[in-house]
Amino acid sequence: MTVFEVTPLLPTYLLGFVISKFAKKSETSDGIEFGAFSRELQIENTEFGIKTAIEALKHFENDFNVKYQEMTKLDQVALPVFNFGGMENHGIIFYREDFLLYDEEIHTAYDKEYVAQTVVHEVKNALKIIKNFIKMKYLKVCHVFLGNLSTP
What we know:
globular; alpha/beta; disordered C terminus
């Protein structure tokens, strides 16, 4: 039986999950597990995406002055068929394979840059989701104390 952690109240469009037989590779940094899922044959090619996500999250936490505190993981999934380059959800980011996987023996520097740009963009948006949750909680507290004066 699979058991999931309790998900905070969030808009349904931010909920994401995948059912697959993908392989997993992960690394933990600052208490957050950065996981990557892909087809077994491609799992080693997720290394660059994991490292890029770790560095991007550290950078944006400082830049936005927001911690990725409510989450204990950030998963990245390389999908063989996906209409978009990437799509961030709460705790999981989906990518078309060529936007996450990088093999230095067959890919070019341009491919590496493209993967890095996509991962950084999606991690930034994932952190913005957390920032918006914090803002919503703050507005709810203000509304309780100030009533309609704090409602836009």
